[in-house]
Task: structure prediction
Amino acid sequence: MIHAISLGIFLSLFWLLLSGYFKALLLILGLISVGIAVVVALRMEVIDHEGHPVHLTLRGTWFWPWLTWEIIKANLDVAKVILDPKLPIQRLVFRVKAGQSDELGHVVYANAITLTPGTVSIDVNDGEITVHALTRGAAEGLANGEMDRRATALVDGPGALPKDRAGDRTGGTG
Amino acid sequence: MDTLFDVLSWICIVLGSVTCLIGAIGLLRLPDVFARMHGAGMIDTMGMGMILLGLMFQAGPTLVTVKLIFIVVFIVFTSPTATHALARAALQGGVEPQVDGELEDSSSAGPGGDGAP
Amino acid sequence: MFAAATAALLVVTGLAMIRALAGPTVFDRILAVNTVGTLTVMLIAVYGFLSGRPEFLDIALVYALINFIATLAVTKYTKYSSLGAPGDHDGRSEP
Result:
């Protein structure tokens, strides 16, 4: 239920910022449409801690700036490779362990991998992510596990250690 | 103050345009589908981010900036999902990723996490 | 200067269209068309500023939504040759 309320608040804010009108009639119409959207989402049963992961917003304050910096660095690397006349690519396919405890964590980690150019996650299977890398440097940068640790800290809380448990704890927040 | 934001905005837009151009060259030069995804990823992340950031500097603190932020957040969330879906479809559609070597598992990647297919 | 950015984006769109036309596999074409969609979102935004009508951003936002859904739909169609329910396949059994 808490997720439905937060979804309603979020949608109302979204509606207000997109429209920019503050007349009574339009506000009421907006509230009605928000209500319909929330009811439809409740009937579809897509509101849970996976469908609407509102608890990650606060912890994300440390994750997103770091990920942005990683994306900029990776972009420069890939740009150098593409502009090199010899095209010094070295394509690699390998697997990395995803140390997150639930599937939401795997999604976050795989999306972070894909978001940095130079590495693309091409398959997710039982806590293992198959990665296609453009260069050896990009592959080794991913294999040292820094991004895994950060994603685990984002999803499971800062105290969670990536090595100790493997999927025995299902994250249930609501 | 206005000139400062103008300069910042143009730096961002020029950087974004150059990134998009390099990404498109990569899209043309790189040899197979999986490699080309990295070029497309450049356009989707830094090219898009830089150009829209430049437009944010132009718009100032208005609702226009909020809409630009919505667009950036939306593309950042959806573009890796689309790329991943495409990669999985290509993998199951019979396109084998060409490989130029093996990653020797010298680092602490994790116990038993080696063994590329 | 917005005109310069618009021109650059048009050139990039043209390059991506070359890949969409030339791509050997269907996945190359989907990738290129997805990229063209992202570029179109940027193009709409920049053109809104060029013509002094930032209302274009609403269209850009909607285009981003449509682009994502369209890519997923086409990908799924090439994968299963249908847009049916996901329960019909386990995702592994057939190419």
About this structure: Chain B has one domain: 2-92.
